[in-house]
Amino acid sequence: MNELQRKILAILFASGDPIGGDRLAEALDITLEDVDKLLLTLSDWLSDLDMPFEILYLGGQYQLATRRELAPIISAALDTRRAAPLTQASLEVLAIIAYNQPVTRAFIEQVRGVDSSSIVANLTQKGFIEEVDRLDIPGRPIAFGTTPLFLRTFGISDLSELPDPHSFSAQPMPDEDTADAHMPQDPDQMDLEL
To answer: Residue 129, SS3?
Structure first.
């Protein structure tokens, strides 16, 4: 490990939160390309030594984190409580934001057809979304986007890794008259798609 890599590791460790490659480049007085190369080598070094840490790339930002496979033991040692899972409504709002960002609350509500203000507030409080802009229209509504925590939680590096929304297809519902004829009686015979 060279001196620049030591400094990068120290910055990532001290930060705790994701930090942009541009900020690392500025602090170390090197180019962004050099930062990327150093981080790649540093990441390989951590992996080769089977260190309990890894460097996550989260949409232009980097974060030093413990490896996922160690989460259960860390949770047990620190007696951390598992966070409540996201509701279906929260996942819907996250999907709308992730695929269309930046978006306003009015856009989210137009897509969902229901008031979503409490869900947006909850997702903001949990750190999954944040205010990214204010639109230059009357009322100057807030536009929301996802955060590095969203990327990290869903195990992706950037939004380009999201599944193609056109690959999701809704299964047509059978007519009421023919529904019973097409439904297998034994649940083990049902052909379910996940």
So the answer is: strand
